[in-house]
Amino acid sequence: MPIVTFYRGHPNPPKTTRRTHLGANVILTCQGRLLLEKRRDSDTWGLVGGGVKNYETEEQAISREVYEELGLRIPKERFRRVKVYGEPGRIAAYCDGSIWRMVIVAFILDLEEEPELKISPESRELRFFRPEELEKIQIVVTHSDIVEELFLQAPGRLHIQKS
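Above: the chain's sequence. Below: its structure in C-alpha coordinate form.
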Protein backbone atom coordinates (compact mmCIF):
# COMPACT_ATOMS: atom_id res chain seq x y z
CA MET A 1 0.00 0.00 0.00
CA PRO A 2 1.46 3.40 -0.96
CA ILE A 3 2.59 5.76 1.76
CA VAL A 4 1.96 8.79 -0.48
CA THR A 5 -0.32 9.73 -3.34
CA PHE A 6 0.74 12.48 -5.74
CA TYR A 7 -1.58 14.87 -7.58
CA ARG A 8 -1.03 17.32 -10.44
CA GLY A 9 -3.82 18.96 -12.39
CA HIS A 10 -6.44 16.90 -10.55
CA PRO A 11 -9.91 18.51 -10.59
CA ASN A 12 -10.41 17.93 -6.86
CA PRO A 13 -7.08 17.45 -5.05
CA PRO A 14 -7.04 17.09 -1.28
CA LYS A 15 -6.72 20.30 0.75
CA THR A 16 -3.27 20.97 2.16
CA THR A 17 -2.63 20.53 5.87
CA ARG A 18 1.00 21.74 5.87
CA ARG A 19 2.94 24.67 4.49
CA THR A 20 4.31 24.55 0.94
CA HIS A 21 7.22 22.16 0.54
CA LEU A 22 10.24 23.26 -1.52
CA GLY A 23 11.99 20.42 -3.30
CA ALA A 24 14.96 20.03 -5.64
CA ASN A 25 15.04 17.33 -8.33
CA VAL A 26 17.47 16.55 -11.10
CA ILE A 27 17.26 15.39 -14.69
CA LEU A 28 20.38 13.24 -14.37
CA THR A 29 21.46 11.81 -17.72
CA CYS A 30 24.24 9.65 -19.08
CA GLN A 31 24.72 8.72 -22.74
CA GLY A 32 21.21 9.91 -23.65
CA ARG A 33 19.49 7.99 -20.86
CA LEU A 34 17.64 9.35 -17.82
CA LEU A 35 18.23 8.07 -14.30
CA LEU A 36 15.08 7.40 -12.29
CA GLU A 37 14.49 5.83 -8.90
CA LYS A 38 11.69 3.40 -8.08
CA ARG A 39 10.31 5.04 -4.96
CA ARG A 40 9.46 2.91 -1.91
CA ASP A 41 6.76 5.34 -0.75
CA SER A 42 4.61 5.09 -3.89
CA ASP A 43 6.11 2.23 -5.93
CA THR A 44 6.43 4.58 -8.92
CA TRP A 45 9.44 5.93 -10.79
CA GLY A 46 10.62 9.46 -10.03
CA LEU A 47 13.45 11.91 -10.35
CA VAL A 48 16.26 11.88 -7.83
CA GLY A 49 15.95 14.65 -5.26
CA GLY A 50 13.98 15.75 -2.25
CA GLY A 51 13.24 18.51 0.18
CA VAL A 52 15.30 21.65 0.62
CA LYS A 53 16.18 22.12 4.30
CA ASN A 54 15.72 25.57 5.89
CA TYR A 55 19.47 26.13 6.24
CA GLU A 56 20.55 25.20 2.70
CA THR A 57 20.37 26.60 -0.81
CA GLU A 58 18.62 24.70 -3.59
CA GLU A 59 22.03 23.81 -5.06
CA GLN A 60 23.23 22.47 -1.72
CA ALA A 61 20.02 20.45 -1.42
CA ILE A 62 20.34 18.75 -4.80
CA SER A 63 24.00 17.93 -4.17
CA ARG A 64 23.09 16.45 -0.75
CA GLU A 65 20.12 14.50 -2.14
CA VAL A 66 22.22 13.00 -4.95
CA TYR A 67 24.73 11.83 -2.36
CA GLU A 68 22.04 10.44 -0.02
CA GLU A 69 20.06 8.68 -2.76
CA LEU A 70 22.86 7.58 -5.12
CA GLY A 71 26.08 7.66 -3.13
CA LEU A 72 27.61 10.16 -5.59
CA ARG A 73 29.53 13.18 -4.34
CA ILE A 74 28.95 15.87 -6.97
CA PRO A 75 29.80 19.51 -6.25
CA LYS A 76 26.78 21.82 -6.24
CA GLU A 77 28.37 23.95 -8.98
CA ARG A 78 27.98 21.11 -11.50
CA PHE A 79 24.18 21.20 -11.33
CA ARG A 80 22.44 23.63 -13.71
CA ARG A 81 19.23 25.13 -12.32
CA VAL A 82 16.75 25.33 -15.18
CA LYS A 83 13.19 25.89 -13.99
CA VAL A 84 10.81 26.13 -11.04
CA TYR A 85 7.58 24.11 -11.18
CA GLY A 86 5.25 25.75 -8.70
CA GLU A 87 1.68 25.67 -9.95
CA PRO A 88 -0.86 25.20 -7.12
CA GLY A 89 -2.13 21.71 -8.04
CA ARG A 90 1.15 19.85 -7.39
CA ILE A 91 0.24 17.97 -4.17
CA ALA A 92 1.69 15.15 -2.04
CA ALA A 93 -0.81 13.45 0.30
CA TYR A 94 0.70 11.10 2.90
CA CYS A 95 -1.19 8.34 4.71
CA ASP A 96 -0.47 10.04 8.07
CA GLY A 97 -2.74 12.93 6.99
CA SER A 98 -0.02 15.43 6.07
CA ILE A 99 -0.79 17.02 2.72
CA TRP A 100 1.32 19.72 1.11
CA ARG A 101 1.71 21.67 -2.06
CA MET A 102 5.02 21.03 -3.78
CA VAL A 103 7.26 23.59 -5.47
CA ILE A 104 10.05 21.84 -7.37
CA VAL A 105 13.30 23.44 -8.48
CA ALA A 106 14.56 21.41 -11.43
CA PHE A 107 18.24 20.92 -12.20
CA ILE A 108 20.06 19.20 -15.06
CA LEU A 109 23.31 17.24 -14.91
CA ASP A 110 24.82 15.09 -17.67
CA LEU A 111 27.40 12.51 -16.65
CA GLU A 112 30.03 11.38 -19.16
CA GLU A 113 30.31 7.85 -17.74
CA GLU A 114 27.74 5.70 -15.99
CA PRO A 115 28.65 5.73 -12.30
CA GLU A 116 28.37 2.97 -9.75
CA LEU A 117 25.20 3.79 -7.82
CA LYS A 118 24.20 2.97 -4.26
CA ILE A 119 20.48 2.41 -3.59
CA SER A 120 19.20 4.33 -0.58
CA PRO A 121 16.48 3.13 1.81
CA GLU A 122 14.09 5.51 -0.04
CA SER A 123 14.40 3.54 -3.30
CA ARG A 124 13.60 0.06 -4.53
CA GLU A 125 15.67 0.37 -7.70
CA LEU A 126 17.81 2.81 -9.69
CA ARG A 127 17.90 2.62 -13.47
CA PHE A 128 18.87 4.61 -16.56
CA PHE A 129 16.07 4.70 -19.17
CA ARG A 130 16.18 5.42 -22.89
CA PRO A 131 13.46 7.87 -24.01
CA GLU A 132 11.29 5.17 -25.62
CA GLU A 133 11.33 3.09 -22.42
CA LEU A 134 9.70 5.87 -20.40
CA GLU A 135 6.36 5.32 -22.09
CA LYS A 136 6.19 1.84 -20.55
CA ILE A 137 6.65 2.78 -16.88
CA GLN A 138 4.62 4.71 -14.32
CA ILE A 139 6.32 8.00 -13.47
CA VAL A 140 5.26 10.04 -10.44
CA VAL A 141 2.68 12.52 -11.75
CA THR A 142 4.47 15.43 -10.05
CA HIS A 143 7.61 14.60 -12.06
CA SER A 144 6.16 13.48 -15.40
CA ASP A 145 5.78 16.99 -16.83
CA ILE A 146 9.35 17.82 -15.82
CA VAL A 147 10.62 14.67 -17.58
CA GLU A 148 8.57 15.50 -20.68
CA GLU A 149 9.74 19.10 -20.89
CA LEU A 150 13.39 18.84 -19.84
CA PHE A 151 14.37 15.35 -21.04
CA LEU A 152 11.97 14.31 -23.78
CA GLN A 153 11.26 17.88 -24.91
CA ALA A 154 7.82 16.63 -25.91
CA PRO A 155 4.98 17.63 -23.55
CA GLY A 156 2.14 15.12 -23.58
CA ARG A 157 4.31 12.23 -24.81
CA LEU A 158 4.05 10.15 -21.64
CA HIS A 159 0.83 8.36 -20.77
CA ILE A 160 0.50 9.28 -17.13
CA GLN A 161 -2.07 7.85 -14.77
CA LYS A 162 -3.82 10.69 -12.96
CA SER A 163 -4.40 10.23 -9.23
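The mean pLDDT is 93.
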